[in-house]
Amino acid sequence: xxxxxxxxxxxxxxxxxxxxxxxxxxxxxxxxxxxxxxxxxxxxxxxxxxxxxxxxxxxxxxxxxxxxxxxxxxxxxxxxxxxxxxxxxxxxxxxxxxxxxxxxxxxxxxxxxxxx
Length: 116
What we know:
By secondary structure, the protein is an alpha+beta fold. The chain is elongated. The chain has helices at about 5-10, 30, 60-65, and strands at about 15-20, 50-55, 85, 90-100, 105-110.
């Protein structure tokens, strides 16, 4: 099942994702360099909260009660899959996890075509 089908089943809004290494011909390089393009001068200084979805798992209440320090939960996402970056309930980008110093980061690989 592809990510868009999975998102539709979860009730999240689906937007078309653009691969930055191979953008469609109708999208110029200028439009893929950042998520917000155009005249958004009134909004440019507003901070927003982005979330990242790494994956999930299901387990029984009994198993939940048995969890102890050192146990590992297997997520429903492969290590080489892109993680999703969301704004509210909308996926706006996807990328790969990277380590930046003592923190995790995300290298952006796809940006949604969002119309405001």
